[in-house]
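Q: Could you fold this chain for me?
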Amino acid sequence: MRGFGHFLAVDWSGAAGERQRGIALALAHGAGGAPVLIRPPHPRGWSRGEVLALLLDLPGDTLVGMDLGISLPYADCDAFFPGWDRSPPAARGLWALVDAFAGADDYLAAGSFVDHPEIAPYFRRHGGREGARFRADDAAHGRGRLRVTEHAQAAMGLKPYSNFNLVGAAQVGKSSLTGMRLLHRLGRAVSVWPIDPLPASGPVVCEIYTSLAAIEAGRSASRAKMRSVEELNEALAALGAPPVPGEGPLDDHSCDALITAVWLRAVHREEARWKPRGLTPTLAATEGWTFGAL
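A: Sure. Below is the predicted structure, expressed as structure tokens.
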């Protein structure tokens, strides 16, 4: 498999506002060593626009893992938005739709997209507003529709939630939708696997699930979140990486980014990571996949 020289992990956020303390970026070098946090250019944290600018200026041998869903469920209903004649046929069309409908929202937010009267019925939103199309059918579970890769995650002991769910601490819908605006604005400057085939050269973005990295570093699913330098260094050692300096508390966003950057470095040459059993060409173009979900 292709090798990379830099591994950038982005713990993303869909929260409101210009700057997000929930966004953390960490870099691991292919030559080895401990991972390092990339400090934001402002004391109040990263803006999504600043992350976009950074991704547009990457070294060509960079593998970027972003903790968000790069698409919405499609395979279960043969459509992102079944019953709607404007439902896009592929993920890049979905990104363009989100960016167009939310184009007036500042900071790459996506509120106008989910508030659109033709889109809102497919989402679960705050205030007990579960859209009539949130579940694919009456038998669907309360977490909502899932992508095929999310079923694979569940089989690995993880607890994925639907990207159509915008409510609760475990939801990833908001970060996924804001991330789709970013992915659309990347254009073709950066390949997004598996929406795009893995290129022979140039930077590549893939979807990550930071809890998967933590589990493969020896944490249990219930203890995937780390909140101290000591916990982080124990997990880094399990992946063969040197410790980061310091001691005491460390926010979970930074821990997630640091461990995942090293995990990407540790496993990126494993062919099975790029060729999971459930991934078909149709799924690659529509739903995408989470790197490492087998």
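A (continued): Strands lie at 6-11, 19-20, 24-29, 36-37, 46-47, 62-66, 124-125, 129-130, 191-193, 204-207.
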